[in-house]
Design goal:
- This protein is an alpha/beta fold.
- The protein has two domains: about 190 residues, HUPs (Rossmann fold, 3-Layer(aba) Sandwich), CATH 3.40.50; about 120 residues, TPP-binding domain (Rossmann fold, 3-Layer(aba) Sandwich).
- It contains nine helices and 17 strands.
- The strands form four sheets. The chain has a seven-stranded parallel β-sheet, with helices on both faces. The chain has a five-stranded parallel β-sheet with strand order 14-13-15-16-17. It has a three-stranded antiparallel β-sheet with strand order 8-9-10.
- Strand 4, helix 2 and strand 5 form a beta-alpha-beta unit.
- Helix 3 crosses helix 4 and helix 5 runs parallel beside helix 9.
- The longest helix is centred in the first third of the chain and has 17 residues.
- The chain is elongated.
């Protein structure tokens, strides 16, 4: 393999029902930074059917080039079709790096692409950079249960591949004045290339709030003591127009659904205000919320790690503090 032949940064632009997913825009922001450091081009790889408007949107969010495969067979995500097309493109175009969101789709797709291209894959990264001397992509992810951070390089193979969890990076401001190249083509793909069929798309039976999009989050941990503790937190969240969330301990105890977990094994959030109640603040949890604009910690233990990273630390019983806080906020609102 001649590594020098590989140039450019690719971002897999994930879309569902014609709507770009947030993680793709976040990766375009980081991809723009990496491409500039490498002095190379940033390309977005888009697969779907009748979604021309998305291509222009990708340019507005930082892409220099959009490679767009259009086929009715790609309307809904399928691993076989997507893997075949992206691998054929990568073999032809030889990108230096491919960034994929660590969504359900990305976690299915990225390993298959990496295996077929005989390259490595660093999953669930929380930081990406470029080594100034070697120009290798530096991919940082938690290791050993989040107790340390490992920076990994794929020095001898290309493309360098990584998946990144939603919410880790910030998307760039949309710039509709940007111009870029859009390469649209009809891929050589047949129904026989796809081993599965989408017979029906069933929506979730209940609406689940995406906490990664929330501006205000009231989160609870082991210190709540019971599932009922979240009723107290929910009252405050409703008063503030926010949502509730929880630490891994709260989810493991069955007090809250997995979709509401913040932390290394949950979701990464960046709200304007993050209120942590009864959460000790282990490194695994901090990794998921430490970039919040303003952190309020309520805990009986004044020496809890979360109290040291909080902008405002309140020592006391959440059962007394949270209801009083909600009451005073309601009075101010009236």
């Amino acid at each position: 393999m001649n590594i020098a032949e590989y140039k450019g940064v690719w971002v897999f632009a994930e879309q569902k029902e014609g709507k770009l997913q947030k993680v793709s825009l976040e990766l375009l922001g980081k991809g723009r930074e990496l491409a500039d450091k490498l002095g190379s081009e940033l390309s977005a790889i888009l697969l779907g059917s009748d979604i021309d408007d998305i291509a222009n949107e990708l340019v507005a969010y930082g892409a220099d080039k959009v490679i767009y495969a259009d086929s009715p067979l790609l309307k809904n995500f399928n691993t076989d079709g997507y893997t075949k097309i992206i691998c054929e493109l990568a073999t032809e175009e030889k990108p230096e790096a491919i960034l994929v969101g660590a969504s359900y789709m990305g976690r299915d797709l990225a390993p298959r692409i990496a295996a077929r291209l005989s390259t490595g894959l660093t999953a669930d990264c929380t930081a990406l950079d470029v080594d100034e001397e070697t120009k290798h992509l530096q991919m940082t992810r938690p290791a050993f249960g989040g107790n340390l951070m490992a920076t990994i390089e794929c020095a001898n193979h290309r493309p360098q591949m990584t998946t990144v969890r939603p919410g880790v990076f910030e998307k760039l401001a949309k710039d509709n004045t940007r111009t870029g190249k859009i390469k649209k083509f009809t891929p050589e793909i047949a129904e026989t290339d796809i081993r599965t069929q989408t017979l029906e798309i069933v929506k979730a039976l209940k609406e689940v709030t995406d906490i990664s999009e929330a501006k205000i989050i009231v989160s609870g941990g082991r210190g709540l003591g019971s599932k009922e503790g979240f009723d107290v937190l929910r009252n405050l969240a409703d008063t503030l127009g926010g949502v509730i969330a929880g630490s891994r301990a709260a989810i493991d105890n069955g007090w809250l659904e997995k979709e509401y977990q913040v932390g290394q094994t949950g979701k990464t959030v960046r709200p304007n205000v993050y209120i942590a109640c009864g959460i000790s603040g282990a490194i695994q949890h901090l990794a998921g919320m430490q970039d919040s604009d303003y952190i309020i910690a309520i805990n009986k233990d004044q020496d809890a790690p979360i109290m040291k990273v909080a902008d405002l630390a309140i020592v006391g019983d959440y059962k007394k503090i949270v209801p009083e806080l909600a009451t005073q906020i309601k009075e101010l609102q009236n």
